Amino acid sequence: MAPALAQEMERALGEASAAMAAASADADAQTGGDLLGAEDLVRGPYAGAGGGAAFGLRIVGARVLPVREAVAVALEGWASQADLCLYVSGAVGESPPGGLDAAVACAARRAVPLVLVCDSASLQRSELARLGLNGVYEIRPGRAFDDAPETPATAAGMAGALTDAVARVAGTWGWE
């Protein structure tokens, strides 16, 4: 995308965000209620590029949770019969995803080992214990250091690669 076009699109999105927030404020004034609360939604949490959908949903009154909280709620009670927790993720960089933090906490409370299966990771083996992980299996090792864009062809191979990674986990943990 040309830089000028990207800048124009960013400006248009900013205008749309401001218009939605203003419309919400108008609705609040007409109803006497506070549709969105006192928080600044245009510049608040979940308002950025990755959170644009969340911003739109919050404008219409949806409750938006951080991934960590959503995963924690979803995992409640799962480990009563589990031998192992397998967390599947995209690339994992310097800081683990919030959902992984929640899964680690849940697994630790139940003394169940947790294994991360991810697209790629820039983690050192020495970091695993500190992060609460009992193992990491990369689907595409080295991808964390590859700047090549994802293409339909590379994405199409992910299902088979994920299946292979889970098979490696099963072999390591004795479930073949």
Kindly describe this structure.
Helix content is 47%, strand content 8%. It is mainly alpha-helical. A 3-stranded parallel β-sheet has the order 1-2-3. Helix 3 (67-75) runs parallel beside helix 4 (98-109). The termini are far apart.
Quick overview:
This protein is mainly alpha-helical and 176 residues long.
List the helices and strands and how they pair.
Elements: H1 3-31, H2 52-59, H3 67-75, E1 85-89, H4 98-109, E2 114-118, H5 128-131, E3 135-138, H6 152-156, H7 158-172
Parallel strand pairs: 1-2, 2-3
**How many β strands by DSSP?**
3
Largest sheet report:
3 strands, parallel
If helices are DSSP runs of H or I spanning 4 or more residues, what is the number of helices?
Answer: 7
* N/C terminus separation: 47 Å
**Classification by helices and strands:** mainly alpha
Strand content: 5-15%
Chain-averaged pLDDT: 78
If you compute it from the alpha carbons, what radius of gyration comes out, rounded to the nearest whole angstrom?
21 Å
State the order of secondary-structure elements, H for helix, E for strand. HHHEHEHEHH
Helix content range = 40-55%
Spatially, the strands of the biggest sheet line up as 1-2-3
Task: Give start-end ranges of low-pLDDT stretches.
Answer: 31-36
Oligomer: single chain
Overall shape: it is: globular
